[in-house]
Write a structure and sequence with these properties.
The complex is a heterodimer of chains A (97) and B (469). By secondary structure, chain A is mostly helical. Chain A has one domain. Helix content of chain A is 89%, strand content 0%. Chain A is elongated, with a radius of gyration of 16 Å. The termini of chain A are far apart. Chain B is mostly helical and 469 residues long. Chain B folds into two domains: 161 residues; 196 residues, Cytochrome C Oxidase, Chain A. Helices cover 77% and strands 1% of the residues of chain B. Chain B has 17 helices and two strands. Chain B has a two-stranded antiparallel ribbon. The longest helix of chain B is centred in the middle third of the chain and has 35 residues. Classes of the chains: A mainly alpha (97), B mainly alpha (469). Chains A and B meet through α1 and α3 of A and α8, α9, α10, α11 and α12 of B.
Chain lengths: 97, 469
């Protein structure tokens, strides 16, 4: 039982950051190349990231504090690519002007 | 091809020495990997503990040499003048190389001594990853101080301080300052480990990260023509994010060494946040790749720079996060899971950065204006090294998974459990696959070495449109 719980936590943690990375890469590629299909695909990875995060949040092995930290992270990952895209674009735009 | 500063010639010495030591790291790693399958191999002659020590120490030294080489290459360009203490810099280089040679010979032929001060000062300090004897420790600090002096004195002499130089100067102070923390001696193992992690973690996950940020910033400025303002703004963001999460992320090493329980919370909290800046950074990498359409006069340098951005996310972010929470780490700590994370993270964050810098320097020294550094061998080496490192990481992940689940979580960390896990087919197969991908990696290194030695012979002429662009 314990081994199964640890295994699930590790797997969800692995997938959470992996999907967060895939979301960030595809979102940035989609925005750069102005391909809405790629942006939509990135949202699928955002959803998968969120589901993986929830897999950790709803695991009874973690207490409330840790569930809160994971929940914060998984929500932050949803907005990081968009926020960073704005930062990067405004940085370059400010320089270009 | 421009005329080189003396400092840039010194940078080339550092890079070639680093590449040779990279080969030594791989050779000792390969022997150690084989000893996992056949423990009798070279037993009593070149024991596993010596191979592992040399494998890791060689890595630390060659990466550090590459970083120093990068500093000496870009410093005169940044300050528009020769480095002030160049003679001192050369002296430090020879002292560094001589010290490394002596330490390696002592490791190979003496290996260990009795638990007294003679051993500590002249054979090995016995601290994992930083086994160098005390005299060599002092030498490492002296070399770091020399680099710091050269950077500060050259900056003052040039009467020109840039944002990048400011970050570098602060970081160099941390680079030699933190290493001193690893030289405390205390009989209390918990206190000893507390300071030891300052070197192992803070060097790697704070000062080295920032140093690589500085070097990659310079590289992007000169390779892609990215404006300084953007590089500096981004560098400040990176320093803030890396330090914000990385410094107290140190706590994940304090879980089980006898420190107070609050380190579980601090370490777990900041470690959970550590992948956030890595995810943020890939957005900028994709943007830069798009802007430049992967076109530059130095293809290998550009591709290794991108490998750095993405490798950091996978190695440090994905493989780090999956076992960083204390609830998981209680079972995975010290297993091959940590080795899997370490292999991919170091390759992604630092090996790629050094190779990008080295290719850039070779391009500047060997490729004429109007030509592109390209060819087939670098692509073979690039793909081979990436396949090799991911293969080794996957194999070590399976081995670490076996230890975590079977030895720790199921059988309860007894000696018998350890033996059962070691003899489990998943473990045995994983070690064989690790060796196989280790061979792939070392063969790719040989192709890389060939390409580095002959780089400049395989060039393409720039097309008219590229020249106009």
């Amino acid at each position: 039982m314990l081994a199964e719980t640890i295994y699930k936590l590790m797997l969800y943690g692995f997938l959470m950051v992996l999907f967060a990375g895939a979301y960030a890469i595809l979102y940035a590629m989609g925005r750069f190349s102005r391909l809405p299909s790629l942006i939509r695909l990135s949202y699928i990875f955002a959803l998968l990231q969120f589901i993986a995060g929830m897999g950790m949040v709803f695991n009874d092995y973690l207490d409330l504090l840790w569930k809160g930290i994971i929940f914060f992270s998984t929500v932050a990952y949803l907005f990081i690519p968009q926020a960073m895209w704005r930062v990067v674009v405004s940085l370059h735009r400010r320089h270009d002007h | 091809m421009e005329k080189l500063y003396e400092s840039q010639k010194l940078a080339l010495w550092y890079f070639w020495t680093a590449i040779v030591l990279f080969g030594a790291q791989l050779l000792f790693g390969l022997i150690a990997a084989y000893q996992f399958i056949n423990p009798d191999f070279l037993y009593g002659t070149l024991n596993f503990m010596t191979n592992r020590m040399l494998h890791i120490n060689a890595m630390v030294v060659w990466l550090l040499m590459g970083f120093i080489g990068g500093i000496y290459w870009f410093l005169p360009i940044e300050t528009d003048r020769e480095v002030v203490g160049i003679k001192l810099g050369k002296l430090a280089y020879f002292a560094f190389v001589g010290a490394v040679a002596i330490v390696v010979l002592v490791y190979l032929f003496k290996q260990f001594g009795s638990g007294d001060f003679f051993t500590l000062w002249f054979i090995t300090e016995g601290r994992e990853y930083i086994e160098a004897p005390r005299w060599a420790d002092i030498g490492i600090v002296a070399v770091a101080l020399t680099v710091a002096y050269n950077v500060i004195a050259t900056t003052i002499a040039s009467k020109k301080i840039t944002g990048i130089l400011g970050v570098l100067i602060v970081d160099l102070a941390a680079l030699f300052g933190l290493y001193i923390a690893g030289m405390f001696f205390t009989p209390n193992i918990s206190v000893d480990q507390f300071w030891w992690w300052w070197v192992v973690h803070l060097w790697v996950e704070a000062t080295w990260e920032v140093l690589v940020g500085v070097l990659m910033g310079w590289l992007l400025m000169h390779l892609l023509g990215t404006p300084r303002k953007i590089i500096e703004a981004w560098l400040y963001v990176e320093v803030m994010l890396v330090f914000g999460t990385g410094i107290l992320g140190l706590g994940h090493h304090y879980y089980w060494i006898g420190t107070p329980e609050y380190w579980l919370g601090i370490g777990g909290f900041f470690s959970s946040l550590e992948p956030l800046p890595l995810v943020a950074m890939v957005v900028h990498a994709v943007y830069d790749a798009g802007v430049h359409k992967l076109q530059t006069v130095n293809r290998p340098a550009l591709f290794w720079a991108f490998a750095q951005a993405f490798g950091n996310l996978f190695g440090a972010g994905v493989w780090g996060f999956m076992h960083t929470l204390p609830q998981i780490n209680l079972y995975s700590h010290g297993t091959q899971m940590a080795a899997a994370h370490g292999h991919l993270a170091f390759f992604g964050a630092y090996v790629s950065a050094n190779l990008a810098l080295f290719y850039y320097i070779l391009g500047k020294t060997r490729v004429k204006e109007g030509y592109i550094l390209n060819g087939v061998p670098w692509k073979i080496a690039y793909i081979g090294l990436i396949v090799g490192i991911f293969g080794m990481t996957a194999a070590l992940t399976v081995a670490g998974f076996t230890q975590t689940m079977i030895e720790r979580a199921t059988l309860g960390s007894t000696w018998e459990a350890y033996i059962q896990a070691q003899m489990h087919p998943w473990m045995e197969e994983a070690f064989k696959w690790r060796l196989f991908f280790g061979v792939v990696f070392i063969l790719s290194y040989l192709v890389l070495l060939y390409d580095l030695i002959t780089a400049g012979k395989r060039v393409e002429q720039l097309k008219e449109a590229q020249l106009a662009g």
